[in-house]
CASP-like protein
Amino acid sequence: MKVGAEEAGEPPMDAAPKTAVNRGISRLDFIMRIVAVIGTLGSAIAMGTTNETLPFFTQFIRFRAAYSDLPTFKFFVVANAIVTAYLILSLPLSIFHIVKSGARATRTVLIILDTAMMAFLTSGASAAAAIVYLAHKGNTRANWFAICQQFNSFCERVSGSLVGSFIGILVLLLLILFSAVALSRN
């Protein structure tokens, strides 16, 4: 009497390709989390250390621009720092998925938490982007003049930190999509 592969306790023939693909997605997940950590940590550091002082007529009267002058930039730094901490703490789960690619519960938890962190990071980056836009273009109706002609270094650093944060958002979006694909393949 012939016994089928499933009856003998062996995995079906098509399980090996699924496991290999899921393991590849898990490795990509780990690498992308490291890229997102670099982007969000760099954004938080760049914004948190941004300030510029300009002399005005005499050395005793100076104009200063610092990230701490605007609560929106403080929120941006905190949001990036929290997402960086989350991404670092999620690295062990990512490693777990490389070892055990069929884990469903932990992958579902990561999808939910990645979505929440992406929303949090998006809110911080979008709020900061609105302030950076006003710093570059100004708003004459509200008497908000463009300050980037005077505080050039400040504006360059702030704009650069936004780029890193939006890269982190894109990577989190891709992480969510890849995790969903891996979960659907189980």
In short: The two ends are 31 Å apart (CA to CA). The helical segments are 15-48, 71-99, 105-137, 152-184. The CA atoms of residues 104 and 183 lie 6 Å apart. The beta strands are 51-56, 58-66.
